[in-house]
Design brief:
Elements lengths: L2 E5 L3 H17 L9 E4 L2 H10 L4 H9 L13 H12 L5 H14 L5 H12 L8 E8 L5 E4 L7 H8 L9 E3 L2 E5 L16 E6 L13 H11 L1 E6 L2 H7 L9 H23 L1
Parallel strand pairs: 1-2, 1-7, 2-3, 7-8
Antiparallel strand pairs: 3-4, 3-6, 5-6
Helix pairs in contact: 1-2, 1-3, 1-10, 4-5, 6-7, 9-10
């Protein structure tokens, strides 16, 4: 495949930033939706689905600046407690998959909104689309055994369910039931899962969050980029300082939508030439 686009996770703020960035690039004549492969994780699964199902980027950006829909209600999120619970669950784990399974057990125990409510939230964002003909991969993890899945139209999952699973932050949102299995956020392995685009000649990686070196759950972003560069070229766009400030301490808060979208749009203006030179 010639080109791949990777869209990483970053909560509600990440969705808004990615839409601001991609719409800004399009306004500058850099149309990254014209690609052979889109890989979306968590927030990126939302944006990737919107790209692949023909959503107008300018309209999607404008929607981030408007009133927050009633479906986008805030959820409690304490970052310190969140990561402390992860650290406790991971103590003594052996290997990446076992580590993910331990977080899966945590996700299954957590008190969250009902699955039906969470599906409605995701449906309000993307509708109820069929899988597009153009290649789209979204990521999820089985809570039972920590298995990582790259889900596409051949997997047999409804697209809405696959995206809801990819956005199921453990301990915050409910795992999503598909068949007899329950799935959680694919960003638990890495925030981008960029290595799924290996084999493309050129890969643009758009990442609200870069991840943590030395994570016991999966490879680092640096390792993923090295994988991509063995047989091709990769260009990374990380959220800049202004965007990170817009994300604040709770990127799951709908109040971050407008400032994050504006930060993405402003960043696009600054990087359009370098992305154009890479993308061709």
């Amino acid at each position: 495949m010639a080109r791949g686009l990777v869209l990483g996770g970053g909560g509600i703020a990440g969705i808004a930033w990615e839409l601001g960035l991609l719409s800004g690039l399009a306004a500058a004549g850099v149309h990254v939706r014209d690609t052979d492969l889109v890989v979306g994780t968590s927030a990126g699964s939302i944006v990737g689905t919107l790209l692949r199902t023909g959503t107008d980027l300018e309209e999607a950006y404008a929607a981030q600046l408007g009133p927050v829909p009633a479906t986008e209600r805030a959820v409690p999120f304490d970052g310190a407690s969140f990561f402390a619970a992860f650290a406790e669950a991971l103590a003594g784990a052996s290997g990446e998959q076992e580590s993910r399974a331990r977080i899966g057990a945590l996700a299954l125990r957590a008190q969250t909104m009902p699955e039906s409510e969470r599906r409605a939230v995701i449906g309000a964002r993307i509708g109820s689309p069929e899988w597009p003909a153009a290649r789209l991969v979204v990521t999820a993890i089985d809570t039972a055994d920590g298995e990582f899945l790259a889900v596409d139209r051949d997997t047999g999952f409804p697209l809405l369910d696959a995206v809801a699973a990819s956005c199921a932050v453990p301990g915050v949102y409910p795992p999503i039931t598909i068949g007899e299995r329950r799935f959680m956020d694919g960003g638990l392995r890495t925030p981008t899962n960029a290595d799924l685009a290996a084999g493309c000649e050129r890969v643009l990686v758009v990442a609200p969050m870069g991840g943590m070196p030395g994570s016991p759950l999966g490879p680092s972003l640096e390792e993923e980029l090295a994988t991509l560069r063995r047989d091709g070229a990769a260009h990374l766009v990380l959220a800049d300082d202004a965007a990170l400030a817009a994300f604040g301490t709770n990127p799951l808060d709908p109040a971050t939508r407008e400032p994050s979208a504006r930060a993405g749009r402003a960043q696009a203006e600054r990087i359009a030439d370098e992305v154009r030179a890479f993308w061709g």
